Amino acid sequence: MVLADADLSDPQTIGALLSQYGIWLDREQSQHLLAERNILDRIVAAAAVRSTDRVLEIGAGIGTLTRELVARAGEVIAVEIDERLVEVLAATCPAANLRVIHQDILALDIERYFGAQPYRLVANLPYSVATPAILRLLQASHPPQDLLVMVQREVGERLAARPGNMSLLSVKAQLFADVELVSRVPPQAFFPPPKVAGAVVHLVPRPTPQVPLLPTEARFWQTVEAGFATRRKQLHNALGSLGVGTEPIHTALAAVGIDPSQRAQTLTLADWSRLSAALWA
User: Which of 54, 65, 191, 197 would be a feasible disulfide site paired with 35, CB 3.0-4.6 Å?
Assistant: First the structure.
């Protein structure tokens, strides 16, 4: 098999390649390779990578998406934690503008590779690290210009949720980025197929948080986390864990026009900002 020319989105090719290198993918580590050309093409089209772009890829695998990125970007930094797949990448993606880093993305010093220069993230993220990786990048001192990522469908829907279906993850992501659910991807588009569907999500980091973190960042998150800690509870009960007393909670809710019987998932980011400010005034 001529690896530099092989169709890395073809399931038979993927199976043969892994067999050649004696690799068994680990489902526990969310090793599910993209194996559907149409989905790959849609991701590439959505990314719209240009020759001036510097791109970070996380979970490069055998190089299915990597190869498409290096053909379009000025430089690609591909992070892969599995040493066996790093060896495969050297054979499938022999590109001068590619640098493969064998490391855990959660421990990677991103500024070491990009400095203060702009960069983008385009990746089929391993489901097991998708959420912490996204939040880490959004809150980094030098975040990417944008993130186009494949994640577990449930995670994608939570990232892009609207009031009525919000979660703690929704608040954390949307506070720091504008989020769009681009498309849903069936399990059959991966090798081997995972038990759950995937989703492609686009996040564009904001220069400042969408709402003020009032009265302080610590108090804001203390309030939000208390609200979501028991999602089924009404807000006046959920916020009781803050230990401020029933009367101050009802007073704060009334001051900002929030019904005490509402639940955390119905609030907007602005609601949380106003409620936290009133609660700790």
Answer: 191
Nearest to 241 by CA among 265, 255, 222: 222
Cα(147)–Cα(122) distance, integer angstroms: 6
How is residue 1 written in tokens? 């098999």
DSSP E strand stretches across 107-252: 120-124, 147-152, 177-185, 190-191, 198-205
Angle at 105 between CA 104 and CA 108, to 5 degrees: 90
**pTM of the complete model:** 0.95
Its CATH architecture, for the domain 3-205, is 3-Layer(aba) Sandwich (3.40)
Please give the torsion angle defined by the CA atoms of residues 63, 64, 67 and 73, in that order, rounded to the nearest 10 degrees: -100
Encoded tokens for 169 = 């993850």
The CATH class that applies to domain 217-279 reads mainly alpha
What share of the chain has pLDDT > 70, as a percent?
99
Parse the chain into domains and list their residue ranges.
3-205, 217-279
Torsion of CA 235, 237, 243, 248, to 10 degrees: 60
Q: What is the mean pLDDT of residues 1-11?
A: 80
**Could you give the 3-state DSSP secondary structure of residue 273?**
helix
